[in-house]
Task: structure prediction
Amino acid sequence: MRKIMTYRQHMRAVLTLGLPLVGGHLAQVAIGITDTVMVGWYGIEALAAVTLGSTFFFVLFIFGSGFAWAVMPLVASFYAEGDETGIRRATRMGLWLSLGFAILAMPVMIWSEAILRLLGQSETLAVAAGSYLRVAGLGILPALLVMVMKSYLAALERTQVVFWITVMSAIVNGLANYALIFGNWGAPELGIIGAALASVATHGVALVGIVIYARLALPHHALFQRLWRLDRQMLARVFKLGWPISFTVLSEVGLFAASALMMGWLGTVPLAAHGIALQLASITFMVHMGLSNAATIRAGNAYGRRDPAHMEKGARVVTLMSLAMAVATIAVFVTVPEPLISVFMQSDEPQRPQILAIGTGLLAMAALFQLVDGAQVIALGLLRGVQDTRVPMVLAAVSYWVVGIPCSYYFGFRLEMGGIGVWLGLVVGLGLASVLLSARFWGATLRKLKREVSVVA
Result:
């Protein structure tokens, strides 16, 4: 019989598993922050272009990441069952599906300039962002494969490795940016193209590092032997679980991408301020994301053992930990916004006062959505752990696209609230998602699992 864990033991287990994941996510965000800071030092126009281009890239990347996210609960469940064959099969087919998506996404990157024009961006912004994406887009293939491998290792509770590989990537990115954006150490000065090349190099180095580790540390999984062989049954299973995750994360990221487009309509300075505020909000969100990943793994393990009591107690703990982090973040964003924003600009930047004024207001909105953003991502992590992805996809799409985006447009342009209004729409969409997704886990999914276990018993 399994020993019943106390709340303190659950918290210790979540921290042991989750802290390296949080660190890994923060290191990943550090890559984006490095890009934003260094390109911001290069020029505000360049910062606006990279903000738009990286948002475009991220939408496609996160859409393709659904198959990597699907690998995590599957491997966690197989791991709890002691099924090494299942672990290998799920991970391999996650790699297959990610490869296929990357091949389909690359032409969209190549033709991004025309797409951005159609989306209402100015000629200057569209040309610059398109140039960035034609290079940076090549990195989507290694980036997606790395995501699958990270999910595989995290589900095996090897989260410290995920952390150190991401840290290594962040260091490579910073060095490459410093050399290629500004022309340091004898490298050519390439501006935003240098930032794009640095991103591609970063994803490539991460892929090489994580594959070497998997081959050396887990040879018994034989992950890369006969990798070319199609496993139709597992491919279908990963696809069935992964495509709703893809559309769920696309719904949320699409909400933020739409906000970036709307900020672009307001001008270069509001878009640059948006990019800075979004980077700061992303830092704190990664803590919630790491806790969400831990929730997925632990819920996946409990699901594999058919242990709803363990799952319920662990879910309460991880939800309360996310809430505590949100309260701390709100205090920081509200009390010291200007020093945070100033990091992303040179002291002699001519448009610094306007960016500080806009960015301070946006951070106040970011403080508002900390609570609800953390709640919705924790609920999603728990739902993925029990392999419940289709209904959450619908709930997310309604929250973000049917409610959030129209609210952003209405507040920002019809009520003429500008950037503050656009971000207020984000708060509304995220708030609705947190309510619906939490109700789905606590009110339907968990209750169903309890009934199934009681019937078997």
